[in-house]
Amino acid sequence: MKLTDALQKSGVSAIIYGESGIGKTHFIGTLPGKTLIIAAEANGIKTLEKFPEEIKKNLSVDFLPTPGKSIEATSAEYNKYFDSLIIQDMPYDNIVLDSATELASMLLIQRTDINKNGGSPTQKNYGDVISCMKRYLRILRDLAIIKGKNVLILALEAEITLAQSADGQSASKTHPGMIGKKFTPEAEGLFDIVAHMEKRSDGSRVFRLEGNEVFVAKDRFGRKGCVADGKVFLSGKTTTEEEK
Questions:
Q1: Alpha helices (H) along the chain
Q2: pLDDT tens digits, residue range 19-76?
Q3: Which of 33, 84, 112, 145 could bond 93 through an S-S bridge, CB–CB 3.0 to 4.6 Å?
Q4: What is the DSSP string of 141-200?
Q5: How far from 172 is each of 8, 22, 159, 165, 215, CA to CA, in Å?
Q6: How far apart are CA 92 and CA 220, in angstroms?
Q7: Residue 117 to residue 109: CA distance in whole angstroms
Q8: Rounded to 5 degrees, what are φ and ψ at 97?
Q9: What is the mean pLDDT of residues 202-230?
């Protein structure tokens, strides 16, 4: 494939994060075209019940297995599901994972033996989950590059301490909440956009797309911010007013 063809085919890949209830799931309803929601939790999907029928008819949902089966059985199902995404021809414009935070939590629950280690996850448990998350997020990212889909990963925000200065002071920033302070920056590096959703005083939602000393954010289009509207977000366009 020629480079020009690949660039034209590539979709947008993004991580969208923010506090619980800020409107991340609601934002899904503003995406243009047909959308597949890979749901690791059911609560967020309830938000979409309030949408008009003309929007809901363009939404489909795949619910991931919930904890309860053996680790081996559930892991095999997860691997098979995510592997199938890259080889099947999906009739969707957008693929949304709701949410990476919940997916990582479910994977950790599956692997934690409550009868050992005081019921706490072991380092091996965390390592196994990180390996799975790397695999799944890379597959989703590749759907944008290879299949031309718009891929959006939703996540709760979490404060992560990544470094400590010479005087012992910790340097913390707000990142998408996944698992592991070392894995999270690696995951952020896979995607074109890392957007922090925020609420204005008038109740409208916007995305912070330029990082600062508090929040991690980036945008391949070079924007500082934009309104939380699917068409605007995916177009790479914005206005001066939206960036305030």
A1: 3-9, 24-28, 43-46, 53-56, 71-87, 100-111, 123-146, 183-189, 230-235
A2: 998 999 889 999 999 999 999 877 767 777 777 888 889 999 898 877 666 777 788 8
A3: 33
A4: HHHHHHS--EEEEEEEEEEEEEEE-TTS-EEEEEEE--S-TTHHHHHHHTSSEEEEEEE-
A5: 38, 22, 6, 11, 9
A6: 23
A7: 14
A8: -100, 120
A9: 94
Token representation of residue 93:
């414009």
* Tokens describing residue 49: 């019940």
pLDDT of residue 88: 85
Show the tokens assigned to 195: 């957007």
What pLDDT is attached to residue 151? Answer: 97
Q: What is the per-residue pLDDT for 3? A: 46
For residue 12, list its beta bridge partners.
none
Distance of CA 230 to the CA centre of its chain: 15
Distance CA 177, CA 198 (A): 16
Nearest by Cα to 22 from 236, 205, 209:
205
Query: Percent of the chain at pLDDT above 90?
Result: 52
The count of other CB atoms within 10 Å of the CB of residue 180 is 16
Question: What type of residue sits at position 106?
Answer: M
Q: Is the peptide bond before 165 cis (omega within 30 degrees of 0)?
A: no
Using CA atoms, how far residue 58 sits from 54, 89, 93, 195, in Å, is: 7, 17, 10, 24
Domains and CATH numbers, the chain: 3-192 (3.40.50)
